[in-house]
C-alpha cells in the first residue's frame, strides 16, 4: 500500500483537469488547512516521513482537485468514517454539500470533534446495509475508505457505481497490491456483476 504519489504523476493529474499545483494547494488554505498545503510543498522524499504520521495522504489532494472541478455539489458519501478527518476536510472543501458518512463504529473524542460540522451527517451502520439506508439516490463524490477485503470492498464499489452522478468522482483508498486488499477477488467479483447488468 503506497500512499505516496510521484511528482510526475501529480503533474499528470493536475494537467488532466486543467489545474495547477498552486490552485490545488490553495484549496487547502481556503479550507483552513494551511498545514496540508505546507506538507505537499515538502520535497517528495520527505513525504513518507511525515505523511502517515500526520494523516496526510494522496487522496486529500484528490479531494481538493474534486472541489475545483465539480460544480453544484450537493451530496457526498464517505464509506468508512474512522476518526472523521476526511469527513471534516470534505465538509470544509465543500461547504454547500451534505457529507453523509457511514461507519459501524463511533470512536474516541477526536471522531466526535471532527464530525461536529453542520454539513456532516453521521450514520452508524455497516456498509453492507447501504442499499437500505435513507440516503440520496445520487452523489457527486463518493469516497470509499471502509472494508479492505473481498467481498465487502466489492459491495462498496458496486454501490458507488450505481449511485455516482455522471461526471462525479469515485475515490478509493488502500487499493493496490498489498497484504491488506484482495485486489484480484474484488476485480473479478466486480467484473462478474458488471457483465450481468
TrEMBL record:
It comes from marine sediment metagenome. This is Methyltransferase domain-containing protein. The lineage of its organism: unclassified sequences, metagenomes, ecological metagenomes. Pfam families: Methyltransf_24.
Amino acid at each position: 500500500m503506497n500512499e505516496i504519489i510521484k511528482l510526475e504523476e501529480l503533474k499528470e493529474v493536475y494537467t488532466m483537469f486543467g489545474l495547477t499545483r498552486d490552485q490545488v494547494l490553495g484549496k487547502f488554505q481556503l479550507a483552513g488547512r494551511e498545514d496540508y498545503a505546507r506538507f505537499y510543498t515538502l520535497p517528495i522524499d520527505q513525504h513518507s516521513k511525515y505523511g502517515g504520521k500526520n494523516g496526510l495522504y494522496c487522496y486529500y489532494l484528490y479531494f481538493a482537485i474534486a472541489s475545483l472541478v465539480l460544480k453544484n455539489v450537493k451530496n457526498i458519501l464517505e464509506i468508512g468514517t474512522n476518526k472523521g478527518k476526511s469527513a471534516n476536510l470534505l465538509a470544509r472543501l465543500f461547504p454547500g454539500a451534505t457529507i453523509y458518512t457511514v461507519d459501524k463504529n463511533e470512536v474516541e473524542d477526536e471522531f466526535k470533534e471532527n464530525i461536529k460540522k453542520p454539513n456532516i451527517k453521521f450514520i452508524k451502520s455497516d456498509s453492507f446495509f447501504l442499499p437500505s439506508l435513507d440516503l440520496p439516490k445520487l452523489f457527486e463524490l463518493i469516497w470509499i475508505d471502509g472494508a479492505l477485503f473481498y467481498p465487502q470492498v466489492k459491495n462498496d464499489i458496486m454501490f458507488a457505481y450505481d449511485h455516482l452522478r455522471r461526471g462525479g468522482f469515485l475515490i478509493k483508498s488502500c487499493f493496490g497490491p498489498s497484504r491488506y486488499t484482495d485486489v484480484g477477488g474484488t476485480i473479478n467479483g466486480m467484473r462478474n456483476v458488471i457483465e450481468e447488468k
